[in-house]
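I hope you will forgive my troubling you with a question about protein structure. I should value your view on which stretches of the chain appear to form regular backbone elements. Here, with my thanks, is the record as I have it:
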Amino acid sequence: MTMSMEDFWFNAVFSLAPSLGVGLIFWFIMRAIIRSDRNERKAYARVEAEERAKQARAVSENR
């Protein structure tokens, strides 16, 4: 029994599809994690800067 070229390409595509699907899911998850980490670091830096500004004002007012 010989395989036609159509069968070959059909089998090739469907044998790679699960790996590509898992790869895409992994990529989306990692992208979401990295973006949320970046946003959290920005928010933390903003809060940290506000707290430093408050401390600097408090120190300058006490002098």
